[in-house]
Design goal:
Pfam families: CarbopepD_reg_2, Plug, TonB_dep_Rec_b-barrel. Its main location: membrane. The protein is mainly beta and 852 residues long. Helix content is 8%, strand content 49%. It is globular.
Length: 852
């Protein structure tokens, strides 16, 4: 016993001596012109030890190794590694354009355009910094709390959306933001969001299929970019850049749980969230070839928030977050063929299984069979989601041009099941578990791009031209017969599996479409201060025709510390194949009463009989005017005002009942109580302002970074369009309740105030987030006003050794909840609908990070 204790003591003493001998490194990072590079990342290689340069380009870092080497990187510049041999360190970073295929910031195809001189507003989020200092584990929730114009809500009581979190940018729909991975289009989810979700009636991209551990940074272009990147980029673009590091092993183990305030039992915590991941990169040869791989596992348990005091009724016995099990593997690689050519391969797979609560069927419910469930039952909707993508491409130089040709394939498959349920029409012989069918979306993209920089044309001209061909497939497949059939219609018993009736053979469909596009864009530096840019894109879709869009942008440096910028663009979004082809009969609960609802596909006999036209593309026009300023050596400010007008938005209409004087007989013939449809029914206008103010100060021997980041947004529905036999019934076609769901995706504001302090091995972060009011409408037609809330997050981190770091903290430290309502009147049957602040209360977490 004494020998291990002695060895441990010697280890602690030697470690302490080594720490005491750590030298303090100081230096300055500048660009090729000798100007300071602000916010450059300086990391001691092989450790968790790092810092960032201030507004004067200087840094201070206490080394933890005997012969430290520093890795220095910044967006728009080529990374460098230098030996820190004592004295003041001076490093000059070269533009990224000096090497083929270096850093490229979204929003520009010029490789020597950094984020600081972009004519469009771009947020660059360093995932290494964010994951160290926050309790969130998945990409959606990470962005929710660091990017003010980004909103993502956890859903419950929303069927498929319980398993895939919808996300929005600048208050528009989830499908109006384009997602790229390493600059290549990411496929969308096959899911259509229904019920009371944000992005109701929209499809979107599932960001959570990509593990945060595989990501180096996320670039958010907060500007319309359809002319540059194509469909879906009305609100902006999110570009996820995968890690390319080599000779570095990073592992993380994370666990967190919620304070279980509202439960039937005495359980103190619930919603336990465990995550473990590993990332490693291998360098291959001397030409920059590498393979970087990530493996990530995440398991999240149910929360239970049904037993809520101060709410007037009880609609459900089980209400809360779904249980999720998620396994991901991702890879990023590059293989040099010569000094001027390389092949790149990246992509990965994600397997997700989930269990989500459906509405309770109480003991006396006519949809219950007491012989099976004498106390009633709580159905559980299960999900089995497969997501995979892969990109292979070649970059090379052809004369003075750089060629990029690639092929990108992606697939998202979503299968439903229902357990702890029954088919009431089968009586006591009913099974209690069913396969309910599902849907799949696939995408294949072939892309060719050419770029060239003419340095002698004024102060520099960058040209880019390219073409793209894309094919998409969508299929909807039926569940097993017992999941949808009524075996005794004469008895009046309900059809199919309770909680989620299976898709029927009449719902099943296979559809595809083709799209071809050509684009050109140019950026001209008229002078060193003045930049002009323009883009033009033509696209043709096989199912609705052609569109031509453009974008113009400018940036002018009034002084060394003040820059003005502005853009104007037109845009479009093609209706997704899922919106065009989705068809289902599902059960909704209105004031606690089950109602059978038909959601009829766009080109079905029902919609054609009602005169609802085929879906067409949404179109937009948008403008952005902003300024960036460095006020002194430690204070920076960006202001960006925007205007976005969208015509012919695809929305989910109100539900028409079987007693409607116009279409009621048609619905009765289909044996449904209500029906709704997808239609280009709304025109909207959004007016907003993004503000980011940051300050860096020396506080004692440490550094304090303070940031205020805010989004102010106002969305107005200008016009509602009706058609066919429903002409003139605007208030019924897309009524106040459905309009409220659209507006709830665009809260009036979100304000984030963050204080981040670092002192040697110790760090602390305090963040206040103000979520503004949201108004929805209950089943009685009365407004439900969710009051503003401020949540507080606290994170403490400490470097236990040079390679090991411990992080502990709490999100929503003071346990704030949304305003409570009668669960009988909400869309989800809980005491609140999903709103942007979340509804699970205080979250405690701990993380252990290792880097070797």
């Amino acid at each position: 016993m004494k020998q291990p204790l002695l060895a441990l003591t010697l280890c602690v003493v030697s470690t302490s001596m080594a720490l005491a001998q750590g030298q303090t490194l100081t230096g300055k990072i500048v660009d090729a012109a000798g100007k300071p590079v602000i916010g450059a990342t300086v990391v001691e290689k092989g450790t968790n030890n790092g810092t960032a340069t201030g507004n004067d380009g200087r840094f201070t870092l206490k080394a933890r190794t005997a012969s430290p080497r520093l890795q220095i990187s910044s967006i728009g510049y080529a990374s460098q590694e230098v030996a820190a041999s004592g004295g003041d360190i001076s490093v000059s970073l070269a533009d990224a354009s000096t090497g083929l295929g270096e850093v490229q910031v979204v929003g520009s195809r010029s490789q020597n355009r950094s984020v600081t001189d972009s004519p469009s507003p771009v947020d660059v989020i360093d995932l290494r910094e964010v994951t160290t200092k926050t309790g969130q584990l998945d990409v959606n929730q990470l962005l929710q709390f660091v990017a003010p114009s980004f909103n993502s809500n956890r859903q419950t009581g929303s069927d498929g959306a319980d398993h895939v979190d919808p996300a929005t940018l600048r208050g528009l729909g989830p499908d109006q933001t384009l997602v790229l991975v390493n600059g290549k289009r990411q496929h969308q989810s096959a899911l259509v969001n229904l019920f009371g979700t944000r992005g109701r009636g929209n499809t979107g991209t599932d960001l959570n299929v990509i593990p945060a551990a595989s990501i180096e940074r996320i670039e958010i272009l907060r500007d319309g970019a359809a002319a540059q990147y194509g469909s879906d980029a009305i609100a902006g673009v999110i570009n996820i850049v995968l890690k390319s590091s080599v000779k570095e092993l990073t592992t993380n183990v994370n666990y967190g749980a919620y304070d279980a305030k509202y439960r039937f039992d005495d359980q103190q915590f619930d919603g336990g969230n465990f995550n473990a991941n590993v990332n490693y990169g291998v360098g291959l040869g001397e030409r920059g070839s590498f393979v970087n791989a990530t493996l990530d596992f995440n398991q999240r348990q149910h929360t239970q928030r049904a037993n809520v005091p101060n709410a007037d009724g009880l609609a459900r016995r089980e209400y809360g977050d779904p249980q999720i099990r998620n396994l991901s593997a991702y890879l990023n690689s590059r293989f040099a063929l010569s000094e001027k050519s390389y092949v790149y391969v990246f992509g990965g797979g994600n397997k997700r299984q989930g269990d989500a609560y459906a509405w309770t069927r109480f003991a006396d419910d006519d949809r219950n069979v007491p012989a099976i469930y004498p106390n009633g039952f709580d159905p559980i909707i299960t999900s089995d989601i497969w997501d995979a993508s892969g990109v292979v491409g070649l970059r090379t130089q052809l004369g003075g041009w750089e060629l990029d040709v690639s092929n990108n394939f992606g697939s998202n498959r979503f299968e439903y099941g229902v357990k702890n349920t029954l088919n009431a029409s089968l009586g006591a012989s009913s099974p209690t578990r069913f396969y309910a069918g599902g849907f799949q979306l696939q995408q294949d993209v072939v892309n060719l791009g050419l770029t060239r920089n003419y340095k002698t044309v004024l102060q520099g001209l960058n040209l880019a031209v390219g073409a793209e061909a894309r094919r998409e497939w969508y299929s909807l497949f039926a569940g097993e017969e017992a999941s949808y059939r009524n075996y005794s219609p004469q008895s009046g018993a309900a059809s199919g599996s309770q909680g989620f009736p299976g898709f029927q053979p009449s719902d099943a469909i296979k559809a595809h479409r083709d799209n071809v596009a050509a684009y050109a864009d140019a950026e001209l530096s008229v002078t060193q201060r003045w930049l002009l840019a323009g883009a033009l894109r033509y696209e043709h879709y096989s199912d609705f025709g052609s569109t031509l869009n453009y974008k113009a942008a400018t940036r002018y440096n009034l002084t060394e510390f003040l820059t003005l910028r502005g853009t104007f663009s037109t845009g479009f979004r093609a209706p997704s194949l899922a919106q065009i082809n989705f068809n289902s009969t599902f059960t909704n609960f209105v004031n606690g009463t089950p109602v059978e609802v038909l959601l009829a596909r766009n080109n079905s006999a029902v919609t054609q009989k009602l005169g609802i036209p085929s879906l067409k593309q949404e179109t937009s026009s948008s403008a952005n005017v902003g300024l960036t300023s460095r006020l002194g050596s430690s204070l920076s400010l960006t202001l960006d005002g925007y205007y976005i007008k969208v015509k012919d938005r695809v929305v989910l209409t109100s539900q028409f009942s079987a007693d409607d004087p116009v279409i009621g007989p048609d619905l009765q013939a289909l044996n449904v109580d209500q029906a709704q449809f997808f239609a280009n029914a709304a025109d909207t206008r959004s007016l907003g302002l993004d503000v980011v103010l940051s300050h860096t100060a020396t506080l004692g021997e440490g550094r304090l970074n303070s940031t205020v980041a805010a989004n102010f947004n106002h969305l107005k529905i200008d016009r509602v369009r009706t058609s066919g036999r429903l002409t003139g019934r605007e208030e019924e076609f897309f009524g106040a309740r459905e309009q409220a769901f659209v507006k709830a995706s665009a809260p009036p504001s979100k304000i984030n105030l963050t204080f981040d302090y670092q002192l040697g091995r110790f760090g602390a972060l305090v963040r206040f987030v103000r979520f503004d009011k949201v108004t929805l409408i209950d089943w009685n037609g009365d407004p439900m006003k969710y009051d503003p809330r401020i949540t507080t997050d606290l994170t403490l981190n400490y470097a236990l050794t040079n390679q090991l770091q411990l992080i502990v903290g709490s999100a929503n430290l003071f346990n704030r909840y949304p305003t409570l309502f009668d669960p009988q009147l909400t869309e989800t049957g809980g005491a609140w609908d999903p709103v942007q602040m979340g509804a699970n209360g205080r979250f405690y977490f701990a993380k252990l990070q290792a880097r070797f």
